[in-house]
Design a protein that fits this description.
Layout: E1 2-8, H1 20-23, H2 28-41, E2 44-50, H3 54-64, E3 70-74, H4 83-91, E4 96-100, E5 122-125, H5 130-146
Length: about 150
C-alpha cells in the first residue's frame, strides 16, 4: 500500500462544532475514518495528522520526503499567509494537493489568496469534506504521471 500523508491545519480539530453552517457537522474523526476506508479500496494508506501549530505541520512535511507518495493538506487559515508552510511544501519532492471544505474564493477577501497553492499540484475547494476523498482519488494519477514528480 502506498502511503499518503493527510495534514489538517489550525481549527480543523473543531469540525462538527465550529461554524457548522460553513463546515458541516462531520467531525475530523469521521473524515479520517472515511479516508482510511477509501484509501484501502484504492491500494493506498493514509496517515492523518492535525495540528494548530505551524511548525508541527512543517516538521511533518519535511519528514514526508522518501516516506510518502503524496500529501493532502488543508492548511486552514495558514493558507493565506504562511510563507513558511509554502516553503516547506516547495522544499520536498512529494506532490501535494490543497483541500478546503468551504469555497475560499467566495468568502471574505482575505481568504481569496492562497500562498500555498502555487507549490501544490492542485486545489479542491468548496465541496465539503468530500474534497479530501477527491484529492485521495487523484493520487494514483499523480503517481502514474511521473512516479510522484512535482511540476512547478
Amino acid at each position: 500500500m502506498k502511503p499518503v500523508l493527510v495534514l489538517h491545519g489550525p481549527n480543523l480539530n473543531r469540525l462538527g462544532k465550529r461554524e457548522p453552517d460553513v463546515y458541516g457537522y462531520e467531525t475530523l474523526s469521521d473524515v479520517n475514518a472515511r479516508l482510511t476506508r477509501r484509501a484501502a479500496e484504492w491500494g493506498l494508506k493514509v496517515d492523518c495528522y492535525q495540528s494548530n501549530h505551524e511548525g508541527a505541520l512543517i516538521d511533518r512535511i519535511h519528514e514526508a520526503e522518501g516516506k510518502y507518495v503524496a500529501i493532502i493538506i488543508n492548511p486552514g487559515a495558514l493558507t493565506h499567509y504562511s510563507y513558511a508552510l509554502r516553503d516547506a511544501l516547495a522544499s520536498v519532492s512529494v506532490p501535494a494537493i490543497e483541500v478546503h471544505i468551504s469555497n475560499i474564493h467566495q468568502r471574505e477577501d482575505f481568504r481569496h489568496v492562497s500562498v500555498t497553492a502555487p507549490v501544490t499540484r492542485g486545489q479542491i475547494v468548496g465541496f465539503g469534506t468530500v474534497g479530501y476523498e477527491w484529492a485521495l482519488a487523484a493520487v494514483p494519477s499523480l503517481l502514474s504521471e511521473g512516479e510522484g514528480s512535482k511540476e512547478r
